[in-house]
């Protein structure tokens, strides 16, 4: 990609915004739980003696419920404000988690796990909540002339995402393996509850309803997924990203258990997340001269080809190599996708738009682990990796097919 310059001090403007510390701290605690919910439930259930297929269907139910419910939460957030919606949705989520933990720990009927999974789908989308706050602070002029660019903000938020991604799944697997099956998810629930309280109490940075952007009145309007073709494209990209990564996560746990070393999965995930953090940090320092739609196509090609190599995984060593190398392109893809959403969607719909985009990956996670688990049970781990590779290649295929549409909707950065 053509590079204009490389600014090593680009994050200073972000770190100077002290009022953001509280909501970002709350956001990262919420994300720790959100990132462990799917793979953490798989680890919890398989270590408790359930099959990979059954664990995959429960994990997929969580993901599917989140896909169906979370965007509605965010639509209400855009209409009524974060403080009015987030705590209520969080309570329902925690009730579902408590039911799941009790069912697994006490050996209750498995049907209760599916009921719990639906309730866990009410989880507020922390990525959308914090990004909406940053966008409000920057666009509303609250930060003055020293305000960071939104690309820098999204790079910074991408780093936070990766830190949570590194801590969440790895800690969930490690605690479940070392203590008892429900230990990881229990720790995640505590983090989530604390994070919701911290974020909600940070009222000074909460966007006021309709404060950013212009458009139709906030109430009684159609969902952004129905009115924006850009959001639908981003949803599709994220669907296949979530689908192949759900297969990848499930197969990683399976391969580690196949070789008799379940903790190897957490080590691989930690290393990959560290690589992703580093690449996202460096990517945020680069100022690119090519248009936003072209950036999205380029990173889609890189992430699709990189994870497409999972077809060659047949051992822990090859899994480590593929996971580590492919992780270099994971954070840049997320940063670019979020920047594309901000550039092409009205500001007063941003919380819902980002949630729909993230829900695409969640919907993929509902699809990936179920089929991946079935393939593992019937054909073995290697077949599951091959299926994931096919899903990964679909990311650049969709991006390039939709280039003309994205080009039409791009507007100049503000």
Count up the helices.
17
| Low-confidence segments | 212-218
Global shape: globular
**Alpha-carbon distance between the termini?**
22 Å
Helix content: over 70%
H and E string: EHHHHHHHHHHHEHHHHHH
What is the topology, as strand order, of the major beta sheet?
Answer: 1-2
Q: Major sheet, described briefly?
A: 2 strands, antiparallel
Q: What would the average pLDDT be, to the nearest integer?
A: 81
Rg, rounded, reads 20 Å
Portion in beta strands? under 5%
User: How many beta strands in the DSSP annotation?
Assistant: 2
Which class best fits the helix and strand makeup?
Answer: mainly alpha
Question: Would you give an account of this structure?
Answer:
- The chain is mainly α and 414 residues long.
- Helix content is 76%, strand content 2%.
- Strands 1-2 form a two-stranded antiparallel sheet.
- The chain is globular.
- The relative contact order is 0.17.
In short:
This protein is mostly helical and 414 residues long. It has helices at 12-15, 20-47, 52-80, 82-106, 111-120, 126-139, 150-178, 183-201, 224-227, 229-258, 263-283, 292-308, 316-326, 330-344, 350-379, 381-401, 403-409, and strands spanning 3-6, 286-288.
List the helices and strands and how they pair.
Blueprint: E1 3-6, H1 12-15, H2 20-47, H3 52-80, H4 82-106, H5 111-120, H6 126-139, H7 150-178, H8 183-201, H9 224-227, H10 229-258, H11 263-283, E2 286-288, H12 292-308, H13 316-326, H14 330-344, H15 350-379, H16 381-401, H17 403-409
Antiparallel strand pairs: 1-2
């Amino acid at each position: 990609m053509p590079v204009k310059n490389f600014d090593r001090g680009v994050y200073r403007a972000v770190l100077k915004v002290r009022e953001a510390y509280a909501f970002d701290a709350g956001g990262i605690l919420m994300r720790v739980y959100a990132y462990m919910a799917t793979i953490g439930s798989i680890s919890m259930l398989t270590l408790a003696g359930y099959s990979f297929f059954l664990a995959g269907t429960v994990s997929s139910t969580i993901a599917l419920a989140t896909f169906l419910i979370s965007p509605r939460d965010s639509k209400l957030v855009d209409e009524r404000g974060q403080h009015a919606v987030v705590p209520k949705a969080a309570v329902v989520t925690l009730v579902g988690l408590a039911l799941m933990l009790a069912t697994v720990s006490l050996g209750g009927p498995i049907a209760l796990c599916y009921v719990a999974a639906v309730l866990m789908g009410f989880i507020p989308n922390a990525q959308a909540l914090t990004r909406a706050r940053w966008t409000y602070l920057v666009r509303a002029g609250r930060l003055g002339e020293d305000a960071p660019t939104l690309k820098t903000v999204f790079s910074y938020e991408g780093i936070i995402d990766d830190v949570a991604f590194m801590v969440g799944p790895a800690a969930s697997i490690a605690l479940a393996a070392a203590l008892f099956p429900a230990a990881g998810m229990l720790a995640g629930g505590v983090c989530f509850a604390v994070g919701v309280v911290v974020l909600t109490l940070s009222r000074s940075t909460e966007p006021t309803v309709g404060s950013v952007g212009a458009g139709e009145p906030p109430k009684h309007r159609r969902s952004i997924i129905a009115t924006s073709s850009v959001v639908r494209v981003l949803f599709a990209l994220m669907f296949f990203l979530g689908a192949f990564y759900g297969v990848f996560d499930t197969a990683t746990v399976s391969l580690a258990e196949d070789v008799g070393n379940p903790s190897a999965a957490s080590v691989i995930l930690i290393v990959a997340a560290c690589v992703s953090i580093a690449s996202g940090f460096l990517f945020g320092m680069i100022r690119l001269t090519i248009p936003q739609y072209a950036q999205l196509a380029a990173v889609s090609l890189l992430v699709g080809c990189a994870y497409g190599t999972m077809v060659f995984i047949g051992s822990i060593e090859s899994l480590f190599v593929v996971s580590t190398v492919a992780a270099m392109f994971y954070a840049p893809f997320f940063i670019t996708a979020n920047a594309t959403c901000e550039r092409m969607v009205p500001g007063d719909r941003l919380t819902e738009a980002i949630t729909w985009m993230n829900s695409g990956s969640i919907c993929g996670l509902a699809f990936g682990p179920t089929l991946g688990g079935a393939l593992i049970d019937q054909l073995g781990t290697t077949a599951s990796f091959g299926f994931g590779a096919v899903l990964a290649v679909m990311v650049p295929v969709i991006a390039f097919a939709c280039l003309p549409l994205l080009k039409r909707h791009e507007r100049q950065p503000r």
